[in-house]
# Entry
Amino acid sequence: MPANLPPQYFETERKLKTVKTPQEKRIILEELLSLVPKHKGTEKLQALLKTKIAKLKSAAQKKPTIAKHALSFHFEKTGAGQVILIGPPNAGKSMLVKSLSNANPEIADYPFTTRTPYPAMMQYENIQIQLIDTPPITPEYMEVWHYELVKEADGILLLLDLSSSGLVDTMQAVLDRLKEKKIELIDEDRTIPAEVPFFYKRTLIVANKRDLKPAEENYDVLKKALESKFSPISVSANSGDGLEYLKKRIFSMLHIIRVYSKIPGKKADFNDPYTLKKGSSVTTMARTVHKDFAQNLKYARIWSKTKYQGQKVNRNHILEDEDVIELHI
Ligand SMILES: Nc1nc2c(ncn2[C@@H]2O[C@H](COP(=O)(O)OP(=O)(O)O)[C@@H](O)[C@H]2O)c(=O)[nH]1
Ligand SMILES: [Mg+2]
# Structure
């Protein structure tokens, strides 16, 4: 039986050669394992990856000498965007990553179960978005590499526990901790301010465990505390409630659009979009398809869900999500 490994598997496999520490290797191997489709044809590969992970784990237990401050993590961006999950202990970050992807991070009802960041891939319609699970942030605890990961990410999910009456305080503790490092979380709809003093990061506040009591009361308290600065959403990572809507909101937080390229006389491949920044023009699309296309472009034809059915547009035309473009050079 063929293994049918997805393209991200090979992309991730290439990263193995670029990392140095056993810890980073292990994280990539775990990501690879999560990307392997689970069927008979991949049993050997799964077993091989598991053995490698187990070896690195036991080696790490024998040599606990790596100084904490020496740890550093960097995840090459794969997919259409990179989103990092942060929050207080036990908010359900790991469970949410598990529910949104094929990954299998450790989940437990005690704090600090997650000690190192854990990457996973989430499918959203026809694209993949990278999620990174991380350890909790508390007034006492946050490591340097954690700030760096937040700064690098394209978007943030700030997870809170709706069953906890202290959720506003724990949220504030996270915001304060980040502010100390000049990271300011802003609503997903806001344009990132141009001034330099802060790293502004688009953030979606996710109030989790809405299946528990007293979720509704606590959600009201949270919304009041946020005023209109953020528009939070409530979900249950456990039951899956609200997760489809959450995926849509994650996509919209990333401020990206999907555009399909079409060859004259042929149909577009709707499984293989180009992902571009919101506000991109036909020229940007042409450059993404091929570096010479932008220069040589004469005009484009465009199809969209509502407005266009093959009209000619010029190179400055601004594209929308799910436009189909025929480039004429
Ligand atoms: N009832 C309920 N429990 C949840 C939900 N999400 C997570 N949990 C539980 O909360 C605890 C902490 O979850 P975990 O994902 O490890 O939290 P993390 O520390 O933020 O990564 C575990 O016991 C989970 O089973 C949820 O939506 N509903
Ligand atoms: Mg965790």
Remarks:
- The chain has a mean pLDDT of 90.
- Residues 93-94, 113-114, 133 surround magnesium ion (ligand 2) (CB under 6 Å).
- The chain has three domains: 1-66, 73-253, 256-328.
- The CA atoms of residues 276 and 285 lie 7 Å apart.
